[in-house]
Amino acid sequence: MGIVNATPDSFYDGGRYVAVDAAVEHGIQLSGEGADILDVGGASSRPGAKEVPPAMEADRVIPIVRQLVKKVTCPISVDTTSALVARLALDAGASWINDISAGKFDAGMAAVVAQSKCKVVLMHSRATPLTMQQHADYNDIVSEVIRELLSEVDNFLKAGVAARQVVIDPGIGFAKTAEHNIALIAGLSTFVNLGYPVLVGTSRKAFVGKITGKEAPGERLFGSLGSVASAFLRGAQIFRVHDVGATKDFLSVLSAIESADPRGVKGKGKTVGQDDTA
């Protein structure tokens, strides 16, 4: 899932793709690099971010969606907590909704998803981006996040959303400390065992910088790939990233090796991408 931030204040690329044409070109580039989904966002959810009115969010996002659906073949997702923005985005051609509040910010979100039959990513968090880090208090991070997240999933199911529409996200960095994030990734197989596809968003986040000592988000690609490897090996299926090409190549090699037969193959056939001198 390639990230297209149409926001002036996102933590990594804020302001770079605010203009519609720039965002669309970036989406086309990410699609060309191998993105399976593009996630367009018009409201930053970084720690401390203030709420964006739905009308402003829609003005940022909808023109981008309208153009991208004509220029790329992959599904378009919209990163929003607003039922209004979600409905407008779906009408414009989006087919996924990525809700970091899992429906808590807008009670109408479940009905929009149920009616449209779109895919929906439900993520765990607490409070709002402005105050969420004040609520990073857990006794057992994995079990508490699962319990709280499944409660929101149940609300969507009761509203008529089919289980096959749901993707879950443990919410790395949302109302979590660096230690919490590490523990969640280490325990990710527990989320996978719930039966829903699991999305993980670790790209260039602060906990990667804390581990590696890289303060600038622009220096955190290699650390981010380390987190992707751990999540992949534990069964995560979707990775929300800024660096689609690098992550795609990384996962291609990792998955090829992990799925290979350690006994090797008989004969002298060449391996994928290799020549006789490799």
- Strands of the widest sheet, in order across it, are 1-2-3-4-5-6
CATH class: Alpha Beta
How many H/I helices? 10
Total number of beta strands = 8
What are the secondary-structure elements, in order, as H or E?
Answer: EHEHEHEHEHEHHEHHEH
For the largest beta-sheet, the strand count, sense and barrel status come to: 6 strands, parallel
Mean pLDDT, as a whole number?
92
How many domains would you count in the coordinates?
Answer: 1
Strand content: 5-15%
| Corresponding CATH architecture | Alpha-Beta Barrel
As residue ranges, the low-confidence spans are: none
**What class would the helix/strand composition place it in?**
alpha/beta
Helix content: 40-55%
Radius of gyration: 19 Å
Shape annotation: globular
Termini separation (Å)?
Answer: 32 Å
**What's the name of the CATH homologous superfamily?**
Dihydropteroate synthase-like
Fold-level CATH name? TIM Barrel
